[in-house]
Fold this sequence. Notes:
By secondary structure, this protein is mostly helical. It has one domain (2-130). It is built from six helices and no strands. The protein is elongated and about 65 Å long.
Amino acid sequence: MVAAWGITPWIAVSLAAMAVMLALRMGVTGRRLGVIRRTASAAGGMGEPMPGELGRLVYDPVLWVAAQMAGTTALGIVFLMTAKPDLAGSLVTVAVALALGVVAGAGSARRSHCPAMAGAAAIASEKQALG
């Protein structure tokens, strides 16, 4: 890339966006997936109902938002490679990609997607009403 075009704004912003994706993967997604893996191993075998703690970890909104942000950032990078905008256009592209990732991740992480969490919430509200 550098040999063909030099250091252009879209290349610099794309490399910075890749660094953001790496940070999300190592700092957020990787750590949370490691905890999920250990919790699932300790929970038992296949065919067992998912424990509430494991459901809480799997449907952690931060995990879903980070995963969606990485995906939308990758799509933003593809757009940068295709359109080759100037610096302002490149920064706006990455900002929009990150914002779309937050919106998509927040929508994906709704508690209604997790039956274990819905059941746990119902039990908690029953206990609160009785006690």
